[in-house]
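tool_call: predict_structure(chain=1)
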Amino acid sequence: MKIVAVTWLDAIVDHEELGSGFSDPPWVITYGVLLEENELFVRVAAEVLEGGKYRCTTTIPRGMVKKVKVL
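tool_result:
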């Protein structure tokens, strides 16, 4: 099981959360268990359940990923 930090360009921007006048999407870092990494996407999970199941997964299109760092 690899724990990773994925730096990627967020596609959805909540202008209320970031403040008015913000126009560029932010770079974000998602931490989690690496579930899959291929030429199409990177998928991580924030929680590991009993029996090898996962919850709170994030799937990031490969074109939006800047880097994947194993922690």
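agent: The helical segments are 15-18. Proceeding to next step.
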